[in-house]
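User: My collaborator sent over this chain with a note saying "see what the structure looks like." That's all I know about it. Can you take a look?
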Amino acid sequence: MPPVSWGAHTPCYPALQSADDRAYIAGMDTSPFRLTDRAAARIAEIVAAQGGDAALRVAVLAGGCSGFQYRFELDRERATDDLIIEHAGASVFIDPASMDLLAGSELDYTDSLMGSHFAVRNPNAASSCGCGTSFSVAE
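Assistant: Without extra context I'll predict from the sequence alone. Here is the result:
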């Protein structure tokens, strides 16, 4: 397996492993996708209000004004190839195709006078639209 680099981190040889029907990256100090404490707290709050036993699915779809757009939705079932990110009691599912565009990203939650929303800080995005929900990548 060739080495993989997650942004500015040292290349490593990740091994996709599974335990208890969960896929995860072994031997990494940091996740290829991170949740802030604020995002984890908000996800946990939303899931609890919906009856628990769900995760936030983060996906990247073709479309939007910049070429790709983020999609956020609660999901009670994970696909067998989903990557599961867990932090502070919250779970996020990401499909492998979306992970290619989200590698090294961080999900945050912002609550201000201008509104509240999840925001992805994506080092792969070369540009984004004004609303922050779509982006393009360098060619």
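A starting point for your reply to your collaborator: The first strand starts at residue 15 and ends at 19.
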